[in-house]
């Protein structure tokens, strides 16, 4: 009896303690779960507000830089500049591609904006695009950052002005809208301002929007890759079938030689990493897909060696105007259409351009711009088309900026 | 026997105290957590409505496309139809109880919430003060919960910022005009086709 009572008393104690612990454990679990949920909601709210603050910081940074045309001298590379906004702060940090903001006005630059609130940070990085007035080099039919030389007995015709940051030396004939002496912006000793040219890396802006044409897909003749018998547009790529809706393509030559000829190109093409110059040969009909896109961007030297003859479908046994890429609104299935051999739009090479082999029958309707020299070693004709109304990407001054679409991304806070 | 009864009283007292202590602690914590959760719930709702409204305002053009100098809603931009509002200042001094989504559909989360919006021009060089003709806009959205709790959300929109680029992306311009002649007997017929192209980035 006494043993049984003792057992019952201990049993009550254990049961009460266990129930207490169970209730406490349940209560603590509920508290912890509610706390965790609350914390998670709070973190989500904080994150969303920081994200909004970061975007506001990016907007503010664009407005701040665009307000000061001399921003490259006002800010130091990779140095934060902070401002308070609402309950938080954001800082702006600029990163030039070569580490010095004020050495070249057209150097590509990135921006980092860090939003800071209640000990939490959120950083965004984006690439800046020049958004100021059109570069002055677009105002000329022929513009070169170096010298513009036309050899003796060689004709060069241009219906607009020709400009050079170096000297202009015409030993043959030169036809301009006015007299050459009246229109060139040549020797700085004469007191003219130097023209602003695009950055040598500006062609790379287009890679983000372009489709690559693999060099190994092209035929190779005696060590030179050849792009010929080829139609490339926003709707057609007769080589690989892969099209780019904006009509932007690029070729990385990987240190190999490349010739382009007997083609119809209704696209923006970026070519880089060549061995020697890019050669345009035979007959080519080339036009940009839109008025505000360039036709050809070359990182390096360009040699214009197009022949006088038209691009004749019957000669090359190729139909260049299928229904998906009509020519002057007309398409067919025949191989009888004839196209003038000409380049339309903006042609820019970061290096030298030489016209050896080009004939006066092969025209450029647009602007011929070189980051190096232009050597007129053969006849050529340029009829200027004004692109200052809608300058292509990379051909505006960096006095104002905008964010390159598609480049805004979150990064770890530096 | 006596020892056994005394032990039962002691253990019952101790157990009761323990249960009381744990329950009081747990319940008071639970009350705090419930209150915090309720506040966070309201903050989350305010966050969802407020940031959505800010995003909606920021997606509009910086100034009126037809009349950039205008600072109020124009004719054809009715006060109860936000789908017709095309620029930021159309939201200036706008307030609405139980606001709907921008497309006019019911927004259950916003039921009984009151939204207020305002936009002011500011200058990037001093974003703390309003500035007529500034190159930025200060966007403000206030949210008032059914229980009266208030939340404020702010953002900056630059005249040539990302939001403006997105707003302009839908625009198109005539980039190419193809005119070709079709000969039919002795009559030459001209037909023209205008092609509109999306503005490239």
Keywords for this structure?
heterodimer, A: 414 residues, alpha/beta, 21-stranded mixed beta sheet, six-stranded antiparallel beta sheet, 4 helices, B: 201 residues, alpha+beta, five-stranded antiparallel beta sheet, two-stranded antiparallel sheet, 2 helices, 7 strands, elongated
Describe the structure.
The complex is a heterodimer of chains A (414) and B (201). Chain A has 414 residues and is α/β, with parallel strands linked by helices. Chain A contains 4 helices and 29 strands. The longest helix of chain A is centred in the first third of the chain and has 66 residues, at 2-67. Chain A is elongated, with a radius of gyration of 32 Å. Chain B has 201 residues and is of the alpha+beta class. Chain B contains 2 helices and 7 strands. Chain B has helices at residues 2-59, 162-169, and strands at 94-97, 114-123, 126-130, 136-144, 150-158, 172-184, 187-198. In chain B, the strands form 2 sheets. In chain B, strands 1, 2, 3, 4 and 5 form a 5-stranded antiparallel sheet that branches. Chain B has a two-stranded antiparallel sheet with strand order 6-7. Chain B is elongated, with a radius of gyration of 31 Å. The model of chain B is unreliable at 166-201 (pLDDT under 50). Chains A and B meet through helix 1 and strand 1 of A and helix 1, strand 5, helix 2 and strand 6 of B.
Q: In a few lines, what is going on in this structure?
A:
Chain A has 414 residues and is α/β, with parallel strands linked by helices.
Biggest interface goes to:
A-B, 62 and 57 residues
Give the helix level of chain B as a range of percent: 25-40%
Gyration radius of chain A (Cα, Å) is 32 Å
Mean pLDDT of chain A: 85
Principal-axis shape of chain A equals elongated
What is the mean pLDDT of chain B?
75
| SSE string of chain B, helices as H and strands as E | HEEEEEHEE
Q: Kindly estimate the percentage of residues of chain B that lie in beta strands according to DSSP.
A: 25-35%
Instruction: State the secondary-structure class of chain A.
Output: alpha/beta
Major β-sheet annotation of chain A: 21 strands, mixed
> Number of helical segments of chain B?
2
Please tell me what the overall shape of chain B is: elongated
């Amino acid at each position: 009896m006494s043993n049984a009572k003792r057992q019952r008393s201990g049993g009550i104690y254990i049961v009460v303690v266990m129930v207490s612990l169970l209730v406490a454990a349940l209560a603590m679990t509920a508290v912890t779960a509610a706390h965790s949920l609350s914390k998670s909601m709070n973190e989500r709210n904080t994150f969303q507000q920081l994200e909004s603050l970061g975007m506001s910081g990016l907007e503010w940074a664009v407005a701040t830089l665009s307000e000061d045309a001399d921003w490259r001298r006002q800010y130091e590379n990779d140095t934060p500049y902070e401002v308070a906004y609402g309950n938080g702060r954001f800082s702006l940090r600029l990163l030039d591609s070569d580490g010095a903001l004020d050495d070249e006005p057209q150097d590509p630059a990135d921006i980092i904006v860090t939003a800071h609130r209640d000990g939490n940070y959120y950083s965004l990085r984006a690439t800046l695009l020049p958004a100021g007035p059109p570069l002055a080099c677009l105002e000329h039919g022929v513009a070169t950052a170096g010298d513009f030389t036309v050899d003796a007995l060689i004709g060069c015709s241009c219906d607009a002005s020709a400009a050079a940051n170096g000297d202009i030396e015409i030993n043959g004939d030169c036809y301009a809208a006015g007299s050459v002496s009246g229109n060139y912006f040549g020797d700085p000793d004469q007191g003219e301002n130097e023209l602003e040219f695009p950055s040598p890396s500006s062609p790379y802006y287009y890679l983000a929007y372009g489709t690559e044409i693999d060099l190994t897909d092209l035929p190779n003749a005696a060590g030179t890759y050849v792009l010929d018998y080829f139609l490339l547009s926003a709707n057609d790529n007769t080589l690989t079938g892969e099209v780019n809706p904006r009509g932007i393509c690029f070729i990385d030559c990987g240190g190999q030689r490349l010739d382009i000829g007997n083609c119809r190109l209704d696209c923006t093409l970026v070519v880089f990493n060549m061995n020697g110059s890019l050669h345009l040969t035979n007959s080519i009909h080339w036009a940009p897909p839109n008025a505000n896109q360039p036709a050809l961007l070359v990182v390096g030297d360009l040699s214009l060696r197009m022949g006088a003859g038209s691009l004749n479908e019957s000669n090359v046994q190729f139909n260049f105007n299928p229904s998906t890429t009509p020519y002057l609104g007309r398409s067919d299935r025949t191989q009888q259409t004839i196209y003038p051999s000409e380049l339309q739009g903006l042609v820019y090479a970061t290096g030298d351009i030489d016209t050896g082999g080009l004939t006066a029958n092969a025209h450029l309707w647009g602007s011929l711009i070189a980051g190096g020299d232009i050597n007129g070693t053969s006849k050529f004709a340029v009829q200027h088309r004004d692109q200052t109304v809608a300058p292509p990407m990379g051909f505006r001054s960096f006095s104002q900026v905008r964010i390159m679409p598609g480049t805004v991304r979150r990064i770890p806070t530096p | 026997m006596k020892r056994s009864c005394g032990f039962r009283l002691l253990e019952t007292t101790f157990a009761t105290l323990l249960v009381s202590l744990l329950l009081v602690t747990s319940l008071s914590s639970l009350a705090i957590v419930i209150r915090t959760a309720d506040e966070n719930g309201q903050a989350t709702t305010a966050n969802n409505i407020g940031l959505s409204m800010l995003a909606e305002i920021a997606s509009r053009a910086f100034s009126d496309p037809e009349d950039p100098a205008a600072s109020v809603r124009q004719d054809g931009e009715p006060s109860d139809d936000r789908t017709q509002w095309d620029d930021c200042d159309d939201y200036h001094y706008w307030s609405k109880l139980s606001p709907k989504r921008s497309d006019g559909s019911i927004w259950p989360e916003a039921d009984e919430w009151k939204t207020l919006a305002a936009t002011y021009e500011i200058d990037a060089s001093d974003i703390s003060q309003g500035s007529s003709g500034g190159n930025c806009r200060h966007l403000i959205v206030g949210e008032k919960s059914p229980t009266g709790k208030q939340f404020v959300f702010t953002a900056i929109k630059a005249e040539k910022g990302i939001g403006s680029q997105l707003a302009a992306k839908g625009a198109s311009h005539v980039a190419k005009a193809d005119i070709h002649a079709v000969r039919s007997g002795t009559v030459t017929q001209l037909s023209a086709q205008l092609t509109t192209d999306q503005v490239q980035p």
